[in-house]
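Shall we go through a protein fold together, starting from nothing but its sequence? Please make up or recall a protein chain and show it to me in full. Go ahead whenever you are ready, and we will take it from there.
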Amino acid sequence: MSNPAGRKLRILCLHGYRQDAETFRRRIGALRKKLNSLAEFEFVEGSLEVVAGDESGIPGEEGRAPGRGWWFSREDGFFRATHHSDYQRGFEVRNIVFINSGLQICVTYARFVVLVSGFKSRCSLHAAFYEHVIPTPSLHVCGLADQIVDVSMSEDFAACFSDAIIVRHSGGHFVPCTPEVTPPLIEFLARFKRAVAEHAQKNEQT
């Protein structure tokens, strides 16, 4: 008989804008080690290629690295968290378990979500995602020094969830592995690991 208590969570990790799956995997390496007893991580690649800023021809994008993205908010391949738009080109996801900064989509069907530098999409085509309170349990990690997604944007997004925990840290726009964040994240994930183990144990007894 298997040991339900030993089963790990499987967490889907979606990278931020101008990153890719491998870059994200490396950047959260220290955090993954701390969460090793709780979870396994799977990384997926954004569906859109984001060219280097110097090659994009878009004013203000000079010097930005190439990578991958999930949607553009303008026909010229532009995206910014603060940009209001009626245009979208890209990939929509509805079952997300872990989201890095940059991608905010409806997460109604996930067991839980962890959002780092999360924000409400300002694309009008996504407005329906926020018409109703999202029941998915969520942990929102906000950087008080974040210059890309202001902490107020993350707090506003957290208000869309009925079961939300907000964790603030003193850093910027990254996934932290600090005493401010790691303990509450471990506690949050452990809650669902226990629930999965209890469910598996009941199934084995029937």
Remarks:
- Confidence is low (pLDDT under 50) at residues 93-106.
- The longest helix spans residues 182-205.
- The chain has one domain: 8-205.
